[in-house]
Amino acid sequence: MKKVLATLFFVAILGIAGYFTFIYYVPFSEGIRSGELIKFSKRGMIIKTWEGEISQGISGAQIFSFSVEQDNEQVINDLQEFQGKYVKVRYLERYGSFFWLGDTNHFITSVELESSPHFGGQRN
Q: Is Transmembrane helix a UniProt keyword of this protein (predicted)?
């Protein structure tokens, strides 16, 4: 009986570890999006996460919500600097997220300033 319980416990621990590993390391998709960075803030009551939004249209009808991992300091600094400007971001979409990483499944890996197509290619 003890062997069966120990085996079930071991299998359960392996299953949980496998689930967390899969969610964190296996991307659902990767891509690039661009738009006006309209929001970037550190949110949360107990665990603070970096969250933001990019408007992908003139009227703001299409909003891309994203998160940034806490240890990605270069991206956090760049997004704070580029607030209100047109940016191009590379992102990684995961199957799920953990509450300590962010609210969304989209995680920004890099950001750069982009020319706005709405203002004749000028950098804003």
A: yes
Q: Which residues of 9-20 are buried (b: 16+ CB within 10 A; e: fewer)?
A: eeeeeeeeeeee
pLDDT at 37: 92
Please check whether residue 1 lies inside any domain of the structure. Answer: no
Task: Label each residue of 61-92 as H, E or C.
Answer: CCEEEEEECCCCHHHHHHHHHCCCCEEEEEEE
Which residues have a Cβ under 8 Å from the Cβ of 105 and sit 6 or more positions away?
Answer: 28, 93, 94, 95, 96, 97
For residue range 67-84, list pLDDT tens digits in order: 999 888 999 999 999 998
- What CATH code is carried by the domain that includes residue 65? 2.40.50.140
Q: Does residue 20 lie within any of the structural domains?
A: no
